[in-house]
Amino acid sequence: MKRTLAELIEDRDILHCLSSGVIATDHLGVITHLNPRSEAKLAIAAADYIGKNIREVLPLFYPLVRECLACGRSVLGRQITLEQGNLVVHVSPILRGRNLLGAVCNFQEPDTFELAARKSDSYQKLNRQLETIISASSDGIWVCDGRGVIVSINAASEALNGIRAKEVIGRNIRQLLDNSIFDQSVTTKVLASGKQETIVQRVDKTKRTLVCTGTPARDEEGNIALIVVNERDMTELETLHRQFEQNRKLTEKYKEEIAGLTLRELEQNTIVADSNVMKHILHKSLKLAHIGASNILILGASGTGKGLLAKSIHKNSNRRDNPFIEINCAALPENLLEAELFGYEKGAFTGASEAGKAGLVELAQGGTLFLDEIGDMPLGLQTKLLKYLDDKKFRRLGGTKAINVECATISATNRNLQDLVRNNLFREDLFYRLSSFTLEIPSLHQRRDDIPGLVRFYLEKYNRQYNKSMYISSAMIGMLQNYSFPGNARELKNIIENGVVLSDETNIDAFLLASIQKNSNSLFSSGKIGSFANPVNFSDAMNQLEKQLLVASRQHCRTTREIADFLKISQPSVVRKLKKHGL
Questions:
Q1: Can you name the residues that pair with 230 across neighbouring β-strands?
Q2: What's the pTM value of the predicted model, to 2 decimals?
Q3: Chain mean position to CA 103
Q4: What's the half-sphere exposure (Cβ side, CA atoms, 13 Å) at 166?
């Protein structure tokens, strides 16, 4: 019987006429059919692809085919990106009864409605806004689909990872991991957990450490449709962290300095601490004062301010409202020192008061006992002092009744107590009893940064005391900073007071210069400037000083600008002065 034209139509005719691309595979993923539309759209030849596994020749289609073959259900509406453009892919299983024979991929460009929507003004405006926001972000931004295929990355991410967008878009993130572009991926963690994840990722190519946060976005069915990854350069965070730490330490430093500089002003004196070493000593003494420490030993040369520091500790302790009792152990002979220290009963010795007398230890009840020049205390009296320190009890000279006194003890000396102990001039047990805490004040020439502050303090003090208006030049202060001050702060105080009272000029530079020349054969502790003839010619002395400063500066500085910075004057002034002195 003759067949009709309709009966002559075969399945392959229909397949070839479809406007959609069609690719069929067997259950192993081997391509069995590929229609002309697929050849045209993918720019391939069917003969080169049929019989080959889709994983090898069309890797972007493979995950969808694998998913369909694995679950036996259709995978619909998935989008993949090729060089030729985007494709919407539907993959359906080929079934014969209950047997899975393979899968068929049907793909096409986005439909006409979507293309029209893409061309609309509102769509293009929104798209431009999103692109601008993503491109302008200083953080790296990745967008991957629900399978981990990279959809988009911004310029910041290209720079952070040392890659180009066109090289990675369309590739699965796992391929980048396999190629060791970075050590781990937050995208794979999000796909595994289904929730937001954050990791620290190392990028070997750019030597950067990134903090990466991946956030999933889900479709109507609750499946992960997109993963947005935000990357931040850890270098910036580390910089911020360092700045935070620096600010925190600076704040702590300010707190300590404020605490140290809130030492209450003593009656007629104050402690000037501009040098780091004195700031440290004041900070340590303030701690001891706040905890109510006792048995503090203050060491330092004569005139360094040991008594002043002892008063400062007392004034900042919880004993401040009780007496501060001071005794100079070198000022009295042994028999009188014992009587002054521990008191005596009536008739204890010839000339003793009929009523007896309370000792200084007894008067210090609840307060502070300051034993100045403790190194000069006689050995016999050291034993009685040690017993008091151990028991907090003593007997008056000539008395039988034990008296209990609770007070803090601070000692001071300009002598080396350990040498005295070795020479059997000071009791070793008393030394350790007195030195639970030790503070050592350096000589003034070891803390020259304190000299300008001390000069200003004493100048203001004595101007106010003697109703004067004297002043000192900055050059003279510089000279004082280079003077050795064998008498330490006490010597400085004396020459300032003498200058204010005795100088005939309101500028007391010349008087001070003559004073320090008289007190020492050298103006500088280094000995670089020799003696001046008496009487002193101030102008000559200043010229000599100026020349010596320039010579010394040239040893440390290479240019006139460096000398200017070193001497705190202008560079033209340096040039003129060098010329003036023939340097």
A1: 141, 213
A2: 0.47
A3: 63
A4: 1
